[in-house]
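ugh ok fine here u go
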Amino acid sequence: MRIVGLMSGTSADGVDAAVVDIKNNKVGLLAFDTFAYSKTLRKNILELGEQKTCQPADISNLNFLIGEVFADAAIKLCKKNKINLKTIDLIGSHGQTIYHKPACNTLQIGEPSVIAYRTGITTVADFRPKDIAAGGQGAPLVPFADYFLLKDKKLNRAVQNIGGITNVTYLPANCKPKDIIAFDTGPGNMIIDRLVYLATKGKQNFDRDGKIAAKGTVNIKLLNEMMAHPYFHRKPPKTTGREMFGREYADAFYKKLSNEDTIATATALTAISIAQSYKRFLPRLPDEIILCGGGARNKTLVKMLRQNIKSKILFTDDFGINSDAKEAVSFAILAYATIKGIANNVPSATGAKKAVILGKVIPAQ
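structure:
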């Protein structure tokens, strides 16, 4: 099958879109791109996700608008790479999360009916609710794809995504799905991005290559204050998001130090919280850590990870998968499983009572 995977993470930067071919349980990445949200749309998404109250009309309007944006991303990606849209069998869309309360409820917007109609392609979306209905946290969802792509017969591997939030999938050597351990380790780029935005007065949304952090010095006192959050000590299964590590959390640390030192310390928070979670919650340190997500491009963050974890650090690029494309590819794989009638949650990761088939299917016609 040829599938388009679409997703936008908690950083709400834009739509990641990937075209993949899946044949004989092998995945080939044909095309990938990120289509940035406009400044106004990103602002509206972030405000909607963090404000205490909002009008139903606000959610409904954005739901349909983001559906159009996701549909455009799929169409533009195919056109840019000269892939005939008629050759696409399926779209898997994670949508844009605006609220997630683990084990209780969740909301991803980006109306899949709009995507299916605009593209003329059957669309699978809204993956999280079924896992919550089965008693799970509704996340993380990517462990199924990590197992599909990166399990190894001899090596213990950790697939570490660093998006707005960081999540790890631990794949013991020669593992079965029931052996997988996966959870959100804490904030990834989210705190860094917010502090960069404040420090540059909105001129930058992220620390490209970790250049700002590289100029600063980690402040141990502030780092310990950041690490005092109870989430870091909570045992898996667990998941988190902007509700816990959003603007309120980040803004509390702004102007306590120089901009460079604050951003360096926030970067250390991501690296050390990942390292500590491995030591606390994994049965043993992995032989290999495979990085993906936007944070894998942050050279200062990767350097800090190497300083705090002895495992060999690789990137999904080393396995033929663009680090930035990994999550979009994952939702193509999840959609493939849904259509094939394959259970695609991982109960050992989400805490669900049993394996279930995730997603809602919107026919093309």
